[in-house]
Automatic annotation (TrEMBL):
Keywords: ATP-binding, Cell shape, Cell wall biogenesis/degradation, Cytoplasm, Ligase, Magnesium, Manganese, Metal-binding, Nucleotide-binding, Peptidoglycan synthesis. It catalyses: 2 D-alanine + ATP = D-alanyl-D-alanine + ADP + phosphate + H(+). InterPro entries: ATP-grasp (IPR011761), ATP_grasp_subdomain_1 (IPR013815), D-Ala_lig_Van_CS (IPR000291), D_ala_D_ala (IPR005905), Dala_Dala_lig_C (IPR011095), Dala_Dala_lig_N (IPR011127), PreATP-grasp_dom_sf (IPR016185). Cell wall formation. The gene is ddl. SUPFAM superfamilies: Glutathione synthetase ATP-binding domain-like (SSF56059), PreATP-grasp domain (SSF52440). The lineage of its organism: Bacteria, Bacillati, Actinomycetota, Actinomycetes, Propionibacteriales. It is found in: Cytoplasm. This is D-alanine--D-alanine ligase. Belongs to the D-alanine--D-alanine ligase family. It is an enzyme of class 6 (ligase). It comes from Nocardioides cavernae.
Amino acid sequence: MTRPSRTRVAVVGGGQNCEHAVSLASAAAVADALDPTVYDVVRLTIGEDGTWHDGARVLPLGDAVAVLQSCAAVLPVVHGPRGEDGSLAALCELAGVAYVGSGVGAGALAMDKWATKLVAGALGIATAPGLLLTATSAATYAFTHPVVVKPVAAGSSHGVTLVREAAELAAALDAALALDDRVLVEDVVVGREIDVAVLGTADGARVVSPALEIVVDGWFDFDAKYGGGADFRIPAALDDVARTDLEQAALAVYDALGCAGVARVDFFVTEHGPVLNEVNTMPGFTEQSQVPKMFAAAGLSYADLLDRLVRDVLPA
């Protein structure tokens, strides 16, 4: 009996940004979880210097594109700028290769926290009051009350600082400007941190995951996210009205940005309703990450979630 041929897929990890190590972990987990009887997995890595690698072999960009074109689909598991921001989607589009996840426009909009705020505002979805600063305008910004300072386009809480007093402001602005030439300064929102994932399907339907609440003693920073200091509670304890409000807001933002595949939509839930924090079109994707845990709670295993994402983009 002839064994059915396996589907060749590329998993791309790494990247040229501060989320390089997190992306490596996500990509390794994704590649390991794809069923080896179904998929022939090619593992590609983008170095912090932008160099592409196939294992130990360095690939010129043209050769890397050729490898991508030899695959039926690409899983671009690169978080942050020059990856999640639509860059890899654009490369796949130009190469004519099917890929998992959001397209160029959605990736770029969602990565840009200021643009996401504008989209949410047009939808009537609340966000934290805030303003956009550049290096020039940051020099004259005066502290008046506690704020959160963050780069406009970065993830994993890199460059994000809770500024409680004036003496902390300059260092916070410097940290954010080191990662981006635009900075978002937002009022502190008091509420529960609750995330919802949305999974788009090939037929246009969207599936909303159970909500996940992040419970942490203090600030949900990089160490809390990846050092085991946060407790994820799934499903989050919500009444029917609050859960419906969250799900409808998540779907509205997902659709307005033009997302595809899976996206994580992060909220603060306050006494006045949900407040959008940010949208991640390529969230952390190890089996212990938020999105896989949310869908596992709904009965969709990590391996099955990945299989579904790939199958939905394969050519008919």
